[in-house]
Specification:
- The chain is mainly beta.
- The protein folds into 5 domains: about 1-80, no CATH class; about 90-150, no CATH class; about 155-210, no CATH class; about 215-260, 2-Layer Sandwich (Wheat Germ Agglutinin (Isolectin 2), domain 1), CATH 3.30.60; about 265-349, no CATH class.
- About 5% of the residues lie in helices and about 25% in strands.
- A 4-stranded antiparallel sheet has the order 1-2-3-4. A 4-stranded antiparallel sheet has the order 7-8-9-10.
- The termini are far apart.
Length: about 350
Amino acid sequence: MEIQHFSHHHPLVFIQAHSVASKAALCLGCQKPVKGWSYGCTQCEFYLHKGCAELELAPKIQHPSHSSAKITLFFGHKRFDLHINCALLQSSIAANFPNFLHPHPLHFIQNYNKEIEPDCPWCQKPISGPFNHCSDCTYPTVFNLHKECAELPLEINHPCDRKHPLTLLPQPPTHPQKCSCYLCRIQWKGFVYSCSLCNFDLTIDDILFSPPTITVASHEHPWMLVSTKIYFVCDFCGTDGDHSPYFCATCHLIVHKNCISLPVHIMITRHHHTISLSYSFRPNQVEDWMCKICYEKVDISYGHYRCPASRCRYIAHAHCATDKAIWDGTIMPKGYDERSEELVDEPWK
């Protein structure tokens, strides 16, 4: 079976079992390796996926990412102005997006289901599924937004500040250089809802991703959101917070939302053993412990990471051990056997 494709001057032959797969042949349409059924010209080493060859594509299209002229479609070793998959995305101008939040128009991309980079600048989370894209911003200042983030209201009423509405800002207000507030500790760079009168800020993560209850495998009871402005010290990391903690009514623990997901066992660059999260609190522990990362005192009446190996006294603050410069995100698998580190019962457990 042969087809005459507009992108190549020779007929393309249907290939059922691709014999050049070992040579990592690329589809000249989408630039991905050819696997399975395809069409090809072996004389020219020109190959197309069956799906790419049968796409109903016009030689020229009008695409919202380039409104001044039509985009010409090329296959083969010629210039690609737009990837085939990108050209096929259903796109439209995002309506009513405030210019002061971003100076360029945004295009709503509907049928895209793969994760893209970079993360959403508003909520700092990965983007997949429908999203808004700015075609005027180019690398390294790429600007993409979750559909949900782009539709956030400019003002909200929130139980954490019952006196004033909170206003959406493209970046956190300026804080003192050595500020120890929660936003500064987690180095939040995304958008915030802010009340300048009360000096109070909420991240987009607080608004969109704070469900009433959270259940995780590392804790046997559900965590319940306390949606109010309240001062507390997190039982897991030992640092303070000023709003919306999560509470375990059974264990009487109160924690930051992000601390709920602290991994139980991790590997860090500063220590050759696995270190484990400890929050089994005991009274009357008067011995001083020093964090092996920041070299400041560790209050072991709150959660921290320590080495379970016998005769190893490595200990670190939870926020120090999970800093991106120290920990690469490696989590020891579920069912990890602490005995492999020669675990001792006292005084660690």
